[in-house]
Amino acid sequence: MAMAKDQDMRVGVGVELDEQHIGAVRFVAAMGAVGTVVGLHVIPAPDFFEPVLETGELATIRGQVARNVTRLLGGAGIAEAAQQVEVVEAQTIEDGLSGAAEQLKLDLLVIGRRAKRGADPLVRLGEVTRRVLRRLPVPLVTVPPEFGDRSAGDPGLGAGPIILATDLSEHCEAAVDLAKALSARLSRPLLLAYGTDAFSWGVSYLSPETRARLEAEVRAGADAKLQSWAEARGLGDAEHHVFTGDPVKGVLQLVAERDPAVLVTGSRGLGPLQRAIGASVSTELAASAPVPVAVTG
């Protein structure tokens, strides 16, 4: 999907009321002025409260939540005039966020993940973020919780480019639009990353010279494919990076070397069987990268 112009852009952000987990809000503030910032907070559906609340108490809760969301958005530097606060009632948080993103016709949804930069805990994305990422109602950005927390010494946006990780498939078309938009908005150059399959185990029997020649040929062929793909999408002048082997490891190594402001990638989606046996590349990157990761459908 093509991104809206800045003055019309509607960016939604999932706002947690715990100030230790508002990296997503700080990321939206770091994007600069957009048309509207929609602060989203999900509370349980009314049937959860009915047995225990008196008449009018739910409205009081909603009002207090809305005021807290407004305070957190303003504290991050988002002008009140640009804010739209939505307290969403739903059976689950992921239902509320996904449904609101579609109903409000958001151009981008930004939410936090559980794991801090560089950490490798058992839970990295968090169940809510993982489920929203699987649904992918609109382009989604996942952000480390401490992003931009000056008291913790976090720098916020990296000093490097916008990295667009592509497999040259149709699943990356929307990612191209988003990467271009972020590049222009943040005044950062684009870096295109493309990975090819690693050599089979049989190459270990070849001489080092032969292996080096084969690798050079594979890289040259991959770079030519990437150049052709880029030129067809108006990205012919963008820097290229080609690697071989595991795509998650290859992209994460590049992220470590280049300190990008944002990593952008497309998603092939997951069927029921894939969900049972493993995550997609985009999900692994969103869980592991030490920078904000934007994923498009």
From TrEMBL:
Domain annotation UspA: ranges: 10-144, 161-295
Pfam families, sorted: Usp
Top-rank taxon: Bacteria
Family to which this protein belongs: Belongs to the universal stress protein A family.
Name of the protein described by the UniProt record: UspA
